[in-house]
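--- STAGE predict ---
source: upstream dedup step, 1 unique chain passed
mode: sequence only
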Amino acid sequence: MRKVTESSGLIKRGTENTTKIETPGCILKDNEDLLVETLNSIMSNSHFVIRNIIKNIVKELVGGCLESSLLNNVNWSVHNRTSITLSMKSVRLSASEGDIFLLNDKKSGDKITKLLLLADHMQYAKMLQEVDFTSVGARNIRILSSKLSNAIRREIFAILVEHGSLNCVFFTDACSVIPEDMHEKCIGTKNENVRVEYFESLLKDQATVESRLGKIVRWLQYNQILMANENQKRVRLLFYTVVKAMRYKVVTKYKYLVENQLEDNKNQKSMVLFKEIIEIVLGMAESTNYCRVLQGLHYLKVLIETKDVQDHVPEKRFKEIILNALTETHKEVREISASFKMDITAKQIDSAVKSTQNSELHGMALLLADNITEKNRDVIQQIMKNALERIQNAQDLSNVHKDIHVLWSVFNALPADRIFLEGNRINPAHIVETKKESHLVCRV
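--- STAGE serialize ---
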């Protein structure tokens, strides 16, 4: 075989040249935009195996000639750039304003949250003040806050407070002190998510709940209508926390003081504020606004089911509210109303059957089904007797279906596993058990 001459540059004097040929980084750098554009396009429309290959390619390039500048190229989509970044745990990135605003994005928000955990909090903290968080963004920022250390969370809180941003409420803990001039702003801001987060911040330190009772009352006065379903549920749980705290710190103590004819000015002031909360709740439950009345009934249920607290809710007014709510056209309002434990009479059922409002009958039927016990056996028998007599003596069939609905409500409520759920949906458990029984019979 012919030897390669020296002029070839690869072999010198018959010996191999061990010098490595370096990757032409300058060539890649000059074509970086085209490279990123191509990889981004392929990654956006490919199988996950292809996407993983592209991630590995970028890892090699970032670790080599192009360093971390490749990831900051504008041709990456936010989704793809974040996905690549999250696979590179060793990379420390700086977040841009565009990244921060994408916390509100349904598709990329969760990835931006993870990306911020890899970024320097001192670099992005100030930018958080500009974001008007939606429900999605608020959820993502709460997740971010929960995963940060206490020290970092407090530093971000301090920065946002310094710039007068209400978004500081997302980074509070039991030791956080919100400036006095920001409390009113948090209560009345247009952003519902900030208002709800502020309400939660008032309850993070259970030891100070009584001292913050005035702010809690004010918040409830100005936030009786919440539009987001998630916020409604969060505030219901927070209200339960308020009532539970007040029972042990205020109401029980007040009861002891009254029984022993003692006085405590601080307790009396707290009790006055707590009675204001009860009045607010009763006013909400009497409302005609759907969101307000539904939330009010959930609050009222907490008050009624809490020992000692229930004694301060006027019984007559409470029962009137429930009976009125049972005639509401909204199914959710009727269902929560029917869940209250109340005595029901045959006269009330007869009146509902004769009413021209079908919603009144449906509400009463729900209440009847949820309150069938051994104690009211005689009442149930009288209701059934009246219904059967009306069916038997009916001149036409125009109202017979109402009495049948009452009878069915009674029968449906008797089994341990109801045949129907929510009035019209067959109980899946009942169907499964029936199938099992029929299958066993066939095998035998």
